[in-house]
């Protein structure tokens, strides 16, 4: 694919793309669909007695990496939130994720809060029969290697691993936890999980669809649950986060370091639109919206 030779065309494309995509992403107006166990394609059930949620042991020096590692610092700046990669997750954030999983009947997914467990990730990856062996033993293996040599416990980066069906969270943001949980719900209903994961991770621009889907699910869920505070947080965090994916996609078309500039510019409309949307969320949540719309 031809690369842009100058910053201006890429800046225009990234900014226009961010505005258009963000206007159509994260809408929370349709009735929320709560998932059910029978809606999902199962591959590996949690063994009886195994905890669905695990926690890493607090370590002051190790957990300080969120303020040392450049990737974490950039994430804080782009989303303008010090809770990104904080490596200290509050009980409120944990409870929000627990409630989401329970309300959507997601029993198979594992959640690791600031945790690192190479052996268990191996077990979950290669016993997850919901993903075809061809995907598990190639991209699943590569994902496990990446998890092993670049531990999130230090490098940060909230994410969902579809090959092991595991959510990894180290940011103390409810909306981020719900977004990653939304990915697990999306994948849970997919028949061809490995193919979907491959398209998401490799095909340019395809990642925008599952990212928008996960954010929309999280925001719609918060509306349905009348959680106005987290709903507002979601708009302020998830909109610019989605814009970083747009900026990253178009930033890859230009030479370094202009690609980083494109991503930084693209996140601006995300922040603007997110705050506009948050300003329209009433303190009473969806209940207040329904009451005002009643005849």
In short:
The protein has 295 residues and is mostly helical.
Description:
This protein is mainly alpha-helical. The protein has one domain. It has helices spanning 7-24, 60-63, 70-79, 91-103, 118-127, 133-149, 152-155, 174-188, 193-202, 208-224, 228-251, 258-279, 285-293, and strands at 53-55, 110-113, 159-161, 166-169. Strands 1-2-4-3 form a 4-stranded mixed beta sheet, covered by helices on one side. The chain is globular and about 45 Å long. 45% of the residues are buried. Residues 1-8 and 18-23 have low confidence and may be disordered.
SSE blueprint and pairings:
Layout: H1 7-24, E1 53-55, H2 60-63, H3 70-79, H4 91-103, E2 110-113, H5 118-127, H6 133-149, H7 152-155, E3 159-161, E4 166-169, H8 174-188, H9 193-202, H10 208-224, H11 228-251, H12 258-279, H13 285-293
How many domains? The number is 1
Described by strand count, sense and barrel closure, the largest sheet is: 4 strands, mixed
- Label the overall shape: globular
Per DSSP, the total helix count is: 13
Key traits:
mainly alpha, about 60% helix, 13 helices, about 300 residues
């Amino acid at each position: 694919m031809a690369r842009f030779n100058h910053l201006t065309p890429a800046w225009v494309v990234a900014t226009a793309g961010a505005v258009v995509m963000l206007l159509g992403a994260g809408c929370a107006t349709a009735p929320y669909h709560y998932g059910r166990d029978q809606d999902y394609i199962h591959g590996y059930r949690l063994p009886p007695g195994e905890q669905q949620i695990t926690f890493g042991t607090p370590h002051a020096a190790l957990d300080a990496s969120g303020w040392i590692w450049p990737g974490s610092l950039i994430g804080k700046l782009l989303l303008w939130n010090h809770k990104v990669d904080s490596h200290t997750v509050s009980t409120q954030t944990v409870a929000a994720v627990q409630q989401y999983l329970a309300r959507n009947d997601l029993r198979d997914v594992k959640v690791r809060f600031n945790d690192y467990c190479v052996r268990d990730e191996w077990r979950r990856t290669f016993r997850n029969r919901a993903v075809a062996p061809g995907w598990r033993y190639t991209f699943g293996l590569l994902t496990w290697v990446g998890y092993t040599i670049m531990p999130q416990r230090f490098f940060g980066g909230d994410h969902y691993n579809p090959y092991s069906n595991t959510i990894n969270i180290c940011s103390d943001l409810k909306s981020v936890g719900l977004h990653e949980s939304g990915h697990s719900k999306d994948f849970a209903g997919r028949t061809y999980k490995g193919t979907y994961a491959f398209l998401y991770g490799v095909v340019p621009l395809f990642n925008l669809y599952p990212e928008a889907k996960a954010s929309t699910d999280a925001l719609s869920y918060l509306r349905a649950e009348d959680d106005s505070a987290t709903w507002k947080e979601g708009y302020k965090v998830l909109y610019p986060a989605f814009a970083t994916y747009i900026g990253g996609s178009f930033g890859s078309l230009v030479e370094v370091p202009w690609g980083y500039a494109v991503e930084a510019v693209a996140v601006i409309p995300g922040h603007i639109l997110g705050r506009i949307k948050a300003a329209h969320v009433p303190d009473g949540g969806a209940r207040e919206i329904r009451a005002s719309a009643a005849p």
